[in-house]
UniProtKB/TrEMBL annotation, chain A:
Belongs to the sodium:neurotransmitter symporter (SNF) (TC 2.A.22) family. Keywords: Membrane, Metal-binding, Sodium, Symport, Transmembrane, Transmembrane helix, Transport. Na(+) binds at residues 23-24, 28, 266, 298, 417, 421. It holds the Pfam family SNF. GO terms for molecular function: L-proline transmembrane transporter activity; metal ion binding; proline:sodium symporter activity. The chain crosses the membrane at residues 12-32, 44-62, 83-103, 169-189, 210-236, 256-280, 292-313, 408-430, 451-472, 478-501, 522-541, 569-594. This is Transporter. It comes from the Eukaryota. It is found in: Membrane. GO terms for biological process: glycine transport; L-proline import across plasma membrane. It is a multi-pass membrane protein. One of its GO terms (cellular component) is apical plasma membrane.
Length: 606, 226
């Protein structure tokens, strides 16, 4: 009998690039710098590396080994380990499906900003004028021009989740484009259409070469930004702020939990993408070395990206601090009719005291308007997620020279990171579909990919509505987090205890030529499962203690974010998201159990 | 005679002082930020600049009301500070010791703001009339938003790429079908076999992963032809 030859990567380098392209994503650029700043600066690196060694590398190695050994996507691979575990694969696919639904909206936003970068001046650099052209728009006055551009002109956000509003056609267009780009890249998948050596050269496969671009371009842009960032005025302030370790944060349990969560989600464990990628490897591929390499590259990229981010932070904070000081100087000069140039940043404090002494009444009147400018306060405003990427960076860019160039570079980098991660997610969905004989026999690959992209695009239109960003936050916070923890926990326990760690050892020995040493075995069998369980317990207790779930809504009248409670149906959607993926595991086991019972009954009656 | 002259002069001076003082009726405060605007090229504010200012205001009033009655002497400046800021009023020579209404002055200045600004090499921000709001010029907007153009270009490229790949895929599949039917015909004649080693087709083993023995280099010419 002839076994269908599974398509392969051209060389191990391509596989590594694919993993890097998948693992290095937006989380490295925007979430890690935020965590670093929140939990003790340089000191955060200690729990981060401990978690990398205890959790990141072992679990990554486990998933790669499973994929390489079973040579199937996530559904097929877990079925081989134990028929009761088919639910695990399905849960991974469901989570990947949820992720691909909302993740591409980020790419749509990146496209929007990219297309708007070809103007002079940049549209988020100045406020638009109000209707009678006597001043700037009210909402824009209360907040900054970059925030106005994000909340009003990009999202056109509604004041709360309940006020859904209509679909924004500009965002819908950008979302469609983003999905077309993803479709272009996954159109023919990682399959080889060629035959053996004798029949001549294989036709060029541009899709697999895409991973070379999506993996290396972000590094090029980050290096350019590093050089630009370090030469900016005030960048040093940001770097000093980041790297001063505040070791007292190590006693805060949230620090350790955040480090664990960050490693976990940053590597993309549990989605099934890694299993899918590894299944296209040659059986003799050294996945142990690759696991170590990929996780180290992932962490190094996070640190590298945070150096860049913090120099940008420092620049922005210094710029705002100096504007604040200049505003105070102008106010004082105008109020007391002092000569220009007599008040500078250096003599400001002495002059303030002098003025207070000589003109007490006027000074008292002016006092509420005189803000206390502090560089620390500016650096302390930590922003994460979409806020960091789109507001803070665009604010920093508008103050640089030749802002259009840096803007284009930055948003192209965001697109590369986002699309790289999307390719991994869609691989996780498509591999089981193309593996299954039922679907793959009837429809060609292009049609399957096209249908998946189309369905996701249609559902994604929800996120282009006026309240879309609130739904985006729901998906971002709840679609993947708890489910992935459970999936990876079940994966680890099933490989160690159901499949058997000795059997797994033997398989690895067959594949890469040596048995895993005691470090890997201890991590797999004890440390990682315990860590995941404690993460679980922490999240659940946190939820129970805080009671209800809240979200940040944009208040146009005040020009800032306010906290609101989720309405009932939003909580139901959250519950549904978590349940839809986690329930697959027990349901899968139940279905298999019932099927076996029926088969046994059929056999016994014969 | 001399006394009468002195009296009228002092009366006029007092009247002027009455008319032009901070927060007087129809008086406007002006603030200049010369050093901010011009940096090293900043000029010093002296009596000559004040004369120019009075001339510009008179010019503005003449253009606005189109009666040539406003003279430079009708514009009064007072309370000049180091900042450089001062108050000014425009008197009406037809009616004795009164000032032209504030709304007229405001309208006149608004109409000629550009000319006044350029006379002093300043802008709306650096030459401020404190009660007169300026009309801000909106940014230049092209007829088609730029982003749509870029979007259109990228969209066309992507769609072209997709169409090309799909067409190439269909072509390949047609070729594959043709070849597989040929192969089936050959297989029926038993001439082509696919070698299988341990359940793995030899094709996949035949890649760079294996060691290549230099003696048996894949050089077809070395083999003796049968």
């Amino acid at each position: 009998a002839m076994e269908k030859s599974r398509p392969l990567w051209d060389n191990p380098l391509q596989f590594v690039f694919a993993c890097i392209s998948y693992a290095v994503g937006l989380g490295n650029v925007w979430r890690f710098p935020y965590l670093c700043q929140m939990y003790g600066g340089g000191g955060f690196l200690i729990p981060y590396f401990i978690m990398l060694i205890a959790e990141g590398m072992p679990l990554l190695y486990l998933e790669l080994a499973v994929g390489q050994r079973m040579r199937q996507g996530s559904i097929g691979a877990w079925k081989i380990i134990s028929p009761y575990l088919c639910g695990v694969g399905v849960a991974s696919v469901v989570v990947s499906f949820f992720l691909s639904m909302y993740y591409n909206v980020i790419n749509a936003w990146a496209f929007w900003y990219l297309f708007h970068s070809f103007q002079d001046p940049l549209p988020w650099a100045t406020c638009p004028l109000n209707s009678n052209r006597t001043g700037y728009e009210e909402e824009c006055e209360k907040t900054s021009s970059t925030q106005y551009f994000w909340y009003r002109q990009t999202l056109n956000i509604s004041p709360s989740l309940e006020a859904s509003g209509s679909v924004q056609w500009e965002q819908a267009l950008c979302l469609t484009l983003a999905w077309l780009v993803v479709y272009l890249c996954i159109l023919r998948g990682t399959e080889a259409n060629g035959k053996g050596r004798g029949s001549g050269r294989r036709p060029a496969e541009p899709q697999r070469e895409v991973v070379y671009v999506t993996a290396s371009l972000p590094y090029c842009v980050l290096i350019i930004y590093l050089i630009r960032g370090l030469t900016l005025h005030g960048a040093v302030n940001g770097l000093v702020y980041m790297f001063t370790p505040k070791l007292e944060q190590l006693s805060n349990p949230k620090t350790w939990v955040s480090a664990a969560t960050q490693i976990f989600f940053s590597l993309g464990l549990g989605f099934g993408s890694l299993i899918a990628f590894a299944s296209y490897n040659e059986p003799s591929n050294n996945c142990e070395r690759h696991a170590v390499i990929v996780s180290l590259i992932n962490s190094t990229t996070s640190i590298f990206a945070s150096i860049v981010t913090f120099s940008i932070y420092g620049f922005k904070a210094t710029f705002n601090y100096e504007s604040c000081i200049n505003k105070v100087i102008l106010l004082l000069m105008n109020a007391f009719d002092l000569e220009e140039g007599s008040l500078t940043a250096d003599n400001l404090n002495e002059m303030k005291d002098y003025l207070m002494a000589t003109h007490p009444q006027e000074y008292m009147q002016l006092l509420p308007q005189l803000k206390n400018c502090s560089l620390e306060a500016e650096l302390d405003t930590a922003v994460q997620g979409t806020g960091l990427a789109f507001i803070v960076y665009s604010e920093a860019i508008k103050n640089m020279e030749v802002p259009q160039l840096y803007s284009v570079l930055y948003f192209v980098m965001l697109l590369m990171l986002g699309i790289g991660s999307m390719l991994g997610n869609t691989a996780a969905i498509l591999t089981p579909l193309t593996d299954s004989r039922v679907i793959a026999a009837r429809f060609p690959k292009e049609v399957i990919s096209g249908v998946v992209c189309f369905i996701n695009c249609m559902i994604g239109l929800i996120f282009t509505m006026e309240a879309g960003n609130y739904w985006f936050d729901i998906f971002n916070d709840y679609a993947a987090t708890l489910s992935l923890l459970l999936i990876v926990l079940v994966e680890t326990i099933s490989v160690c205890y159901i499949y058997g760690i000795r059997r797994f050892e033997k398989d690895l020995h067959t594949m890469i030529g040596r048995k895993p040493n005691w470090y890997w075995k201890i991590m797999w069998a004890f440390v990682s499962p315990l860590l995941i369980i404690s993460l679980f317990i922490f999240y659940l207790t946190d939820y129970i203690l805080t009671g209800t779930l809240q979200y940040q809504a944009w208040d146009a009248t005040q020009g800032q974010l306010v906290t609101k409670d989720y309405p009932g149906y939003a909580l139901a959607v959250i519950g549904l998201l978590v349940a839809a993926s986690t329930m697959c595991i027990p349901l899968g086991a139940l279905v298999t159990f019932i099927r076996k019972r029926l088969k046994r009954e059929n056999v016994s009656t014969v | 005679m001399l006394r009468v002259l002195l009296l009228t002069l002092s009366l006029v001076a007092i009247a002027h002082a009455e008319l032009c003082k901070p927060d007087a009726q129809n008086a406007f405060k002006v603030r200049l930020s010369i050093k901010t605007a011009l940096g090293d090229n900043a000029y010093v504010w002296d009596a000559n600049e004040e004369y120019l200012f009075k001339a510009m205001v008179a010019f503005a009033m003449r253009r606005y009301s189109s009666k040539n009655t406003t003279q430079i002497s009708n514009v009064l400046l007072c309370n000049v500070t180091d900042r450089v800021s001062f108050w000014f009023v425009v008197t009406d020579s037809s009616k004795n010791v009164t000032t032209v209404s504030g709304s007229e002055v405001e309208a006149a200045i608004r109409m000629n703001r550009n000319r006044i600004n350029s006379a002093f090499l300043l802008s709306d921000k650096t030459l401020q009339f404190l009660k007169i709001t300026s009309t801000l010029s909106p940014p230049v907007e092209p007829s088609t938003p730029v982003w749509l153009i870029v979007f259109g270009v990228v969209l066309c490229l992507i769609v072209a790429g997709i169409v090309f790949l799909i067409a190439a895929g269909i072509q390949q599949r047609k070729k594959k079908n043709k070849e597989s039917t040929e192969r089936e015909n050959l297989e029926e004649k038993g001439e082509v076999t696919v070698t299988v080693e341990n359940g793995i087709p030899c094709e996949t083993l035949d890649l760079k992963a294996g060691h290549i023995n230099g003696v048996f280099a894949a050089d077809d010419e070395r083999y003796t032809s049968l």
